[in-house]
Amino acid sequence: MKIDLPKTSIRVLLxxxxxxxxLLIQHLLRKVPNKKFEVDWVATYEAGMKxxxxxxxxxxxxxxxxxAENGLELLRKAxxxxxxxxxxxxxxxxxxxIDLEATKGGASDFLLKxxxxxxxxxxSIRYSIQHFETLRAxxxxxxxxxxxxxxxxxxxxxxxxxxxxxxVNPAACALLRRSRDELLQKCLSxxxxxxxxxxxxxxxxxxxxxxxxxxxxEGEHRFAEFSACRFAHxxxxxxxxxxxxxxxxxxxxxxxxxxxxxRLGQDLHDGLGQMLTGINFLTKVLQQKLTxxxxxxxxxxxxxxxxxxNQALSQCREIARGLCPVVLENNDIHAALQQLAExxxxxxxxxxxxxxxxxVSIGDNxxxxxxxxxxxxxxxxxxxxxxxxxVSLSLLHSKTFLTLxxxxxxxxxxxxxxxxxxxxxxxxxxxxxxxxxxxxVERLKEAGTMITCKVEHSRTGKPPAPMLLVAETPLxxxxxxxxKLAGV
Length: 488
Hints:
disordered N terminus
């Protein structure tokens, strides 16, 4: 940091009981080229304290011996008053003990009177002012940081590389419900829930961010989003924000959205669908009457209307099924994915391969709905944005996880989309969070995109038997095949 000296004259206060020293200082400073110094002089400790108190000088030169008092005492007194200028101690003896005491007391420099010359004195004054200005700037910066640190509503924690906290703010103590002394004996990993599915991390060079769960002393699990970075050697900053209430609200909104989708699907099926069916029946009757009366042109037009009504009715049913898959009411994720695959092939003309375990049991309807919606969003994006011609869907299990994977042969998700996260990715990430799952999005090297969602069996039901159902659905030609899983 470059600190410029004052452009006007530099005001110096000399506190020394020897007038000859005053004359010497004035003489030496007059010899300094291109700089002007104004030197004020007082001869006693008391006069020195009185002259320092207004703090109107840029630097203070203080003799070590001032009668019954000494310069070190004046230095300590001035520091206690908050003097905002450097103090240089002058002495007639080269005593390393006095030098050390002066340094410990906050003196900017320690000069021998009998070795003074213009260059040494000017350099000492210049360096002392620069050093003091640098320290003052650092002090102000530290005060601002301390104010932000103490008053922040977010939990802020500073740790060493081994994870041990070395400083925490009051918000961290309130969030984690532990005292500062307790937290300084812990690492962040000591506070995290052991359920890895609840913790989502993104690592970018020396920065990381994401969401995690932590456990309060009474055993309650809370959700937090965090941002962490390394800001100095062996020093790491972590900021936590409690989002438990937000997560609950998001879940309520999601449930309301699902209910509204089901209602719209049922209204389409039971309302509009039934009306289209009735109109279709009446139009067929009209076509038959026109045919009986040999009114061929009109009968043909009526036939065209019947054909259009059949198409509209089919689309209405498909939309209703997409909004409200009936099979999901019984948590039948296999049948729902089968319907999705057939719908994609029918409307988009792509080849969809479905691979899933027929005995996967999902007891929580919300988990079944979330998995279906993630598959629906991912496959639709692959076809519409990725220009995919082939899409594979799989629902497999391991000892710990149930894994939904969607892979396509399209152009691949753009790298900037992975960083910015569009609406589709955010919706899938949100659904994964709602069921405590891990969502991974990967741009494949060869072609296409792979999206993987892993959810623990403890959230879905008991682990299924190791059987595999393979289904390829090129339009109306579905072939199903079962085989034993080896090593899955």
